Amino acid sequence: MVEAQILSHNVAFVADAAHSRRAAELGAGKGVSRSHYSARFRANQHSNTKDIRAMTKPSTAIIGACGEHYIAAYLSGFKLIVAMPRGGIPGSDLFVTNEKGGQAIRVQVKTGTQATRNTKDEGEIYLWATSYAAIERDDKHLWYAYVWLNGWPNEENLPEVFFVPSKVVVKCMKGCREDNDTWPYFWMRADDAKKYQGHAGLQSLLDALDS
Q1: Position with higher pLDDT, 4 vs 154
Q2: Residue 82 and residue 92 in contact, taking contact as beta carbons nearer than 8 Å
Q3: Nearest 5°: phi and psi at 123?
Q4: What is the separation, in whole angstroms, between the first and last Cα of the chain?
Q5: pLDDT per residue over 38-51, tens digit each?
Q6: To pair with 173 at 20 to 30 A between CA atoms, which of 18, 23, 85, 145?
Q7: How many whole angstroms from its chain centre is CA 158?
Q8: Model's pTM, two decimal places?
Q9: What is the pLDDT, as a whole number, of residue 26?
Q10: Domains (range + CATH), the chain
C-alpha cells in the first residue's frame, strides 16, 4: 500500500513537471509564467475529478459500507468499543460495547441516499428498505442504526443517524407484512423519529449497554 502511494505520488510529480516544462516552452517570450500554467493544470485536474464523481453513481454495496463505517466512527467518537465482524453473521454489521465490557450490542446498519418522503396520510416520514427477516430478530441486544446520507460527502450536510431498538423495527415490519407491501421498509414519522435521532438515540443505546 505504501509503495503504491509513493509510486502514485511520483507519477503525479513527473506529470506535473512535464506540464510545467511544456508551459514554460509555450509561455516563453509571451509574458506567461510557469506557475500560471501549473495552476491551470491543477485546476483542470480538480474540475475533472469533480465531474467524474458527479457522473458516477455509487453501488448499493458502497453506500452500505459508507453507512457502516460512518456509524463505527460516530460510536467510537463517544468512547465506545466498536468491532466489525466478518461477513455472514445475520443482522450484525457491528458489535458495540463500552469500556466496562459486559454484554455487547449487535448493530445492523441500514443506509439510504433518499430516506425522506412527504405522504398525504402521514406527512413527512423517514424510510429505509428493510427485510422481513427482521421480524424474526426481536432481541434486546440487537439495535438498528438507520443512516440518511443527506448528500454527504458530496455536499456539506452531515448524515442523519437514528438508533432504533429491534422491537420497534419488528412492530413496523409486521405492519408492512399485514398490509402486503411488496417493498418492505421500516418507516417513522418525522416527529416520532426525533427520539431516536442523533444524541437522543445514542443515549438510549448507551442506557441499553449499561442495563
Answers
A1: 154
A2: no
A3: 75, -145
A4: 43
A5: 445 454 544 444 55
A6: 85
A7: 10
A8: 0.72
A9: 40
A10: 2-55 (no CATH), 60-210 (3.40.1350.10)
